[in-house]
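Example 9 (inverse folding). The structure is encoded as follows.
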C-alpha cells in the first residue's frame, strides 16, 4: 500500500452513469436521506452489531470482544462517527463513490482526525484514515479484502440496498456475503412503499424493498443462516417527496451469516 498526495490518484470516474445522479445531488446539497443524528434503529438494534451494546451509549464492557463494522454507500452518515467513538468498536469502514461526501464527513467530524491531505491507494480505491475509521472512495462493486483490510463482524445497511438499481441487487448481496465474517450480522433498513400507484411504488432511488424481496435476495444466498424482521414502522408520507405513494413503511432486518 502506497501513500500519495490526493492529486496523484485517479479515482473512479464520477461521471459514470452509476454515479451521475448522486454526484448531482451532492453538488446541489439535496440530501433528503441524510440524518443529523445516529439512526433511531441503530440505537434500538445496535446489539446485533456491537457486543453488550446499550442504546444511546458509547461504552461497553471492556471484557467483551470489539466489532469491526462496515457501512456501504455511507455518504457522510453520522452513524460512522457513532461507531468510531463507541468502545465496542475497533474500526468502522465506510465506502462511497462520491468524494465530496467523504470530505464533508471528515470536515464535520474533525475529532476523528481523518487525514484528507494524503490518502492511501489500495486496490482500485482511495483510502482516508482517521481514529478507528477508514473511508474508501470508489466503486462498491469492485470491493475485495485487499481494499477493506479483511472481513467484518457487522454491517449497517441504512440507505444502501434501496439506493442501487434493482438489477444489481443480487451482485450487491453477493459482495456483502464476501465481506461478512462467519456468524456476523447485517442490520438492514429498507423502505417499503406499500400502497399507491404503480409509478409511485416502483420509483426510485430510493427504491421500495419489501419483506418478500429481502427474503428472496438473502434466502437464495448460501452464506445466510437466518433472516429476521425485527422492526416495522409506518412513516408519515407527507414528509417525503414521493408522488403516488399512499403508505410507506421502514422495515428492519437482521441477516445472520452462517458460522
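The amino acid assigned to each position is listed next.
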Amino acid at each position: 500500500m502506497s501513500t500519495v498526495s490526493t492529486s496523484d490518484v485517479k479515482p473512479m470516474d464520477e461521471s459514470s452513469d452509476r454515479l451521475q445522479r448522486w454526484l448531482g445531488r451532492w453538488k446541489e446539497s439535496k440530501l433528503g436521506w441524510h440524518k443529523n443524528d445516529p439512526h433511531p434503529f441503530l440505537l434500538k438494534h445496535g446489539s446485533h452489531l456491537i457486543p453488550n451494546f446499550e442504546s444511546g451509549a458509547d461504552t461497553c464492557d471492556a471484557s467483551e470482544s470489539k466489532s469491526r463494522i462496515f457501512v456501504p454507500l455511507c455518504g457522510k452518515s453520522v452513524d460512522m462517527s457513532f461507531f468510531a467513538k463507541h468502545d465496542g468498536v475497533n474500526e468502522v469502514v465506510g465506502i462511497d463513490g462520491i468524494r465530496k461526501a467523504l470530505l464533508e464527513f471528515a470536515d464535520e467530524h474533525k475529532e476523528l482526525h481523518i487525514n484528507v491531505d494524503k490518502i492511501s491507494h489500495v486496490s482500485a480505491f482511495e483510502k482516508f484514515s482517521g481514529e478507528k475509521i477508514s473511508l474508501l472512495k470508489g466503486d462498491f462493486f469492485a470491493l475485495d479484502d485487499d481494499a477493506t483490510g479483511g472481513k467484518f463482524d457487522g454491517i449497517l445497511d441504512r440507505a444502501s440496498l434501496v439506493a442501487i438499481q434493482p438489477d444489481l441487487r443480487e451482485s450487491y448481496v453477493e459482495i456483502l456475503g464476501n465481506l461478512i465474517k462467519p456468524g456476523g450480522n447485517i442490520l438492514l433498513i429498507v423502505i417499503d412503499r406499500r400502497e399507491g400507484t404503480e409509478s409511485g411504488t416502483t420509483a426510485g432511488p430510493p427504491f421500495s424493498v419489501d419483506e418478500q424481496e429481502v427474503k428472496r435476495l438473502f434466502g437464495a444466498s448460501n452464506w445466510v443462516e437466518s433472516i429476521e424482521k425485527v422492526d416495522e414502522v409506518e412513516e408519515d408520507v407527507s414528509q417525503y417527496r414521493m408522488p403516488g405513494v399512499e403508505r410507506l413503511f421502514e422495515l428492519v432486518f437482521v441477516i445472520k451469516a452462517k458460522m
